[in-house]
Design brief:
The chain is an alpha+beta fold. Helix content is 49%, strand content 20%. The chain contains 28 helices and 29 strands. The chain has a seven-stranded mixed beta sheet with strand order 17-29-28-27-18-25-26, sandwiched between helices. A six-stranded antiparallel beta sheet has the order 9-8-10-16-11-14, with no helix packed on it. Strands 19-24-23-22-21-20 form a six-stranded antiparallel beta sheet. β21 (563-568) and β22 (571-576) form a beta hairpin. α9 runs antiparallel to α15, α15 packs antiparallel against α26 and α26 (726-761) packs antiparallel against α28 (774-793). The longest helix is centred in the last third of the chain and has 36 residues, at 726-761. The radius of gyration is 34 Å and the shape is elongated.
Length: 798
Amino acid sequence: MGEMRLSLEGLSCAGCVRRAEAAIESVAGAEDVRVNLANAEASFAAPGSKLEDVADALGKAGYPARTQKAEFTIEGMTCASCVARVEDAVNSLEGVREAQVNFASERLSVSFLAGAVDASDIIAAVQDAGYTARAVGDGQRESAGARRAGEAARLRRDALIAGALALPVFIMEMGGHLVPAFHHFIMGTIGQQTSWLIQFALTTLVLAWPGRQFYRAGFPALMRGAPDMNSLVAVGTMAAYLYSCVATFAPGLLPAASRAVYFEAAAVIVVLILAGRWMEARAKGQAGAAIERLVELAPDEVEIKRGESYERVPVAEVAVGDVLRLRPGERVPVDGSVTRGQSHVDEAMLTGEPLPVAKGTGDALVAGTVNGNGSLEMRAEKVGSETVLAGIVRAVEEAQAAKLPIQALVDRVTLWFVPVVMGLAVVTLGAWLALGAELAQALVASVSVLIIACPCAMGLATPMSIMVGTGRGAEKGIFFRKGDALQRLSDVGIVAFDKTGTLTEGKPVLTDFEAEGFERAELLRLVAAAEQGSEHPVAAAIVAAHEGDLPEASAFEAVSGQGVRAEVGGHALLVGTARMLEAEGIDLPGSHAWQEQGKSVSYIAVDGVYAGRLAVADALKPSAIETVKALKKRGILTAMITGDAEAAARHVAGQLGIDDVQAEVLPEGKLDAVRALQERGAVAFVGDGINDAPALSAADVGIAMGSGTDVAIESAEVVLMGGDPAKAAEAQGLASHVMRNIRQNLFWAFAYNAALIPVAAGVFYPLTGWLLSPMLAAGAMALSSVFVVTNALRLRRA
């Protein structure tokens, strides 16, 4: 290993530099170590050590090597074997942490140590493996659809050209099998030799023109010892073509009984495989349409304020702080807030809500939403990759690039699949010849084995379903941040919900108020003043119930999950749960019917003495009952974890039909509650994504709910836009659909190869007389990939 470089984090002084150098020097073999504080970069020679060992030593010393992520589009991949070879080539680079290829989207995602490797190294490694790589920037996302459309158009053109050239070949050679008189017509007019010469000329054009892509990729891969799908097609068609050339130009080299041509097989194989790839490319474009639609939500141009006038500029030129004008019907270009004007904005792309939302001065606007009939002026606050829309696109792309655990077996199989098939083809040829068959018959069986084998279907089975499924979810406001969450969500046996804001509206109202030793209005004034510093929904309900000005509160303290304490007008107030006041030694009256009615009860103490209690009620969301019913219908247990009193929680659970209730749980106790549920099975937790962070991370699948810009898209593995609990049931149902679709695809891909390779080899010939034509083998192979892709596309209606 020559001189290596790493970008470091955490360097702040000369002492850090020395400690970082000492950490590198502690690794056996590291020498000539230099750490530069100015550019936070370490350089060293490590002839006898691994870069990962150096990175680990730096991490333990507190100066971790900076990790970067990059994405590349890969061209030239034709089957699942290609995926494994690209991954192996990139993973072999010193400094690469992880490389993952998505066959369906033709994307390579790489995590690597900054400074140790760069994009050019990765591109070179991919090229050495026989493929083409291009780095993906923000601007290139938009060209993905155009690239796929261009590929489909090229394959369509090649398939049509090959078809036009191959049709006369097929008619001349196979027409006599359909209409016997046609064979006699050929013999009586141009004769057999001339017919073969015409077939030779046309087939040569097919192979050298539209078919050359198979040879240009297949033979080099074979020479590298890494054969792929192109290699199978190249060897199979070339074997048929060369055999036919010998029969045509040097028939004396073959036994009389074996003098036949298979030009039509070579030509039609190319046509059918090109046609299959064309249909596959079209379907891939449809599968990726969800991301394309998301990207297209942002407009290309916007009106920006320059002085007292407005100028139309590309949206890429907008900077934070710029003032923009939105005309009626225009899409919001960036995230920001209204500075002037009133309108209604359609946020269906974010929340799924069909009704436009009223917007006025100070209200938030999100890129991609649609302005209604009013004219608005807005200030840009987040632009480019920082917008909510860009975050959604990234989340969907990351989920689509993920590999599920179920994919591990497929990767292991496909890496060795093509070499094994080529070995089987050789064994088939030898076995037929050993059993006394004619060379032509043995060649047909061997070529059929090469052509019918289809690793493409195996490689597409999982990523195509993930791509379409996550895209369908995005259309419905369900965003899978991690692809493997699909598999885990499909397997959950328990769905646990937070109550406030998840199953209820999160907008409680004060329904009852009792005062003891104070006038009701005075006590309400004191309590509202104490609560005005709290952000809890109950506090908002109390403050809203008081009319008039409120005195200032001092010494305010919010006790997490219990209540507040404050000083108001010379009085010390405690407002909160029974547990909180009892811990302060305050005697409280017995339970009240309010709790049995499902209301949340808070108790009030003034100057250490019980002074009253109040109740707030929070209406259930309209879809909450149906959500629970839908989950239970699938055999999934439902649970509710809430800080409310036992009686109130059980009342709400009874209304909803929830199976398990865990009440009076503090925020930090939700993690333990989730773990207790996990003893009974896999758990998905549905919460607001902020207050429920510990429970979301502890659950097998964390599902964050929110609306618009409030949703923390980084807080969970699944994010639901709009705050509708029905989307939690939809997400679980979609995950189940996707996993069922993947299993169907994998069964088809493996069963197809397991069943038809023996048929192509002629294993059943002695018993049934079945011997597959190479042309039928090519048709079956092309249709197998098309079947997998088409089956995945059914998820668009899930």
